[in-house]
Amino acid sequence: MTARTEAGLGNLFGQGLLLAGRNIRLNSIADTVSTMVIFPIIFVFGFLALFGNLLSVRGIDYAQFLPPAIVVQWMFSVAITAAFFAASDRRSGMLARYRALAINRGAVVVGRMAADSVRAVLAIAVIVATGYVAGFRFQAGPLAALGFVALSVAFALTISAGTSALGLASRDPESVSSTLHVIYLPLLMVSSAFVPADAFPGWIEPVVRHQPVTAVLDALRALAEGGPTAGPVVKALAWMAGLLAVFSAAAVQAFRRAT
Amino acid sequence: MSTLAETGLLAGRNLRRFVKSPQLVADSVMFPVILLFLMLLVFGELVGQASRGAYIDRLAPVIVLFSAAYGAVGTGVGFFADLRGGIADRFRAMDIGRLPVLAGRIAADLARAVLVGAFTTAVAYAVGFRFSQGPLAVLAFFAVVAMFAWIFLWLAVVVALSASSEQAVSGALNTPVTLLLFLSSGFVPVEQFPGWLQPVVRANPLSLAGDALVGLSSGGAVLVPVLFTAAWAVAATAILAPLAVRLYR
């Protein structure tokens, strides 16, 4: 028999929010102000100081070019933290406890996603504010700016599904996050994040142009700068839909198997 | 037992713990190598056009230094775990000095930094990095790496001794290490920085040690950057070592 507290949308979201609160409180102990606030600032100004001059020679306004890249970097970081907590919830037995409770199963997922979204929005706010100081501007109006935030959060949630699958499959939070760092670094760097695709050696340019992180970055830059946005946004959404399908299937599998 | 023998024993313990953890070895070896290839790929063309000489001549030493500094974060976290895990209390109860516990940790991680550096430069040979200044310069190269690591290891020990949680240790160490990396002449020549930042970039120990390493591997000024790096090391020792010993008591 199913308890009254298990079924229904009301339970799903009510309990989901409750769990999100728990996840956020856990996060705020673990990652200090430094990772959420100081680090994005260091990265924006650090990359600007390093490569601003080099790229302005090529006619690129780096203050406008860079913030979307830092946003994407932090979306990865949100997803890696999600994996860390998925693995520690499994190791500490919290996951098993959730299963034993008369709660909606989906609420665990909703709680995770809501907590990740809060972290993502916070990071975006810090990075965009820092970007504004450096010279970044949303040039295509408030609607496009909202689209920028929504697309970034959607990207964070998409990869969180994948990283959480890995986190749930493991019991070791530290090794999951160090493995994920090794995967994410090449994905981010071999994209148009920090330098445009044509600054790469010719043989790797096709890879840079046609990988999902570049697609998301192109869409974010289009939303920030204006110009033709539909094409890049559709391409990014298509990539994310595909990835989400694979990742969420994997996450559901891992969630079922995790004990 | 003498302080030296005790230090050696404790350093041996720490090194064995490192070597026996495949995770740690993979992390500390893989990270610099991945970073080396990625930086070369992403920024090689861009920076190569703006600076003299091949980018790898400059990049390989910087990656070695960065991984030494970054390795110190691991030192801090590991030492913090020792302090909280009870082994430090066990050492206190034993008939050994206070200093060897600190020195053993630092000696082991110095060895680790040099080993990781040797591995990184060996890999960098595949993409064009060369030692062209003779065998003595190679030895001096790794001596500078150790000197540079020394600064950060004492910092890591002090942070571990005064922090309240593991996250606080890595947070407090990651921030200065990352800042130092960005504000160094390692990745791009110092002339590429905004004018007001250039003095900071020049005084950065990572820039100075980087210049010394470039001089010792592919040629260039050696004496002045080595002296400045040594000055940093002396200053760090004078301030941080007594502080660490006091905090440990």
UniProtKB/TrEMBL annotation, chain A:
Superkingdom as given in the UniProt entry: Bacteria
The name this protein goes by in its record: Transport permease protein
Subcellular location: Cell membrane; Membrane
GO molecular function term, any single one: ABC-type transporter activity
PROSITE patterns: ABC_TM2
Domain ABC transmembrane type-2: 31-258
Keywords linked to the UniProt accession: Antibiotic resistance, Cell membrane, Membrane, Transmembrane, Transmembrane helix, Transport
One of the GO biological process terms: response to antibiotic
Residues that span the membrane, as ranges: 32-53, 65-87, 120-138, 144-170, 182-204, 236-255
Phylogenetic placement of the source organism: Bacteria, Bacillati, Actinomycetota, Actinomycetes, Streptosporangiales
One cellular component (GO) term of this entry: ATP-binding cassette (ABC) transporter complex
Annotated family: Belongs to the ABC-2 integral membrane protein family.
First-listed, main subcellular location of the protein, grouped into a coarse class: membrane
Membrane topology: Multi-pass membrane protein
TrEMBL record, chain B:
InterPro entries: ABC2_TM, ABC2_TM_bact-type, ABC_2_transport, Nod_factor_ABC_transporter
Predominant location category: membrane
PROSITE patterns per UniProt: ABC_TM2 (PS51012)
Subcellular localization, as worded in the UniProt entry: Cell membrane; Membrane
Entry keyword annotation includes Transmembrane helix: yes
Cellular compartments per GO CC: ATP-binding cassette (ABC) transporter complex
Membrane-topology annotation of the record: Multi-pass membrane protein
Swiss-Prot/TrEMBL keywords: Antibiotic resistance, Cell membrane, Membrane, Transmembrane, Transmembrane helix, Transport
A GO molecular-function annotation: ABC-type transporter activity
GO BP annotation list: response to antibiotic
Origin: domain of life: Bacteria
ABC transmembrane type-2 domain: residues covered: 23-247
TM stretches of this protein: 24-47, 59-81, 102-127, 139-161, 222-245
PANTHER family named among the record's database cross-references: NODULATION PROTEIN J
Family: Belongs to the ABC-2 integral membrane protein family.
Protein's name in the database: Transport permease protein
